[in-house]
Amino acid sequence: MVVTPALVIAMGWQFTRTPPAVLPAEDQGILFAQIQTPAGATAEATKAVIDDATKYLLTEEKDAVTSVFAVNGFNFGGLGR
Description:
Blueprint: H1 3-17, H2 43-59
């Protein structure tokens, strides 16, 4: 019964002691997205989808997007598929 309130108080105290430099003061303006094609899609088909998305972002969203970095074949799941 004493442990939970003690942890809450300790976390609150630590939050007030965290220097502002550790936490970003504003939006850093970075967006991460993942495009998933159907199972068995070729690298060329995936690249075509990535190219279409890149073209859209750099033309239709040019007021908000200054650059795009794309990687074909990366898997956030880390399974190498």
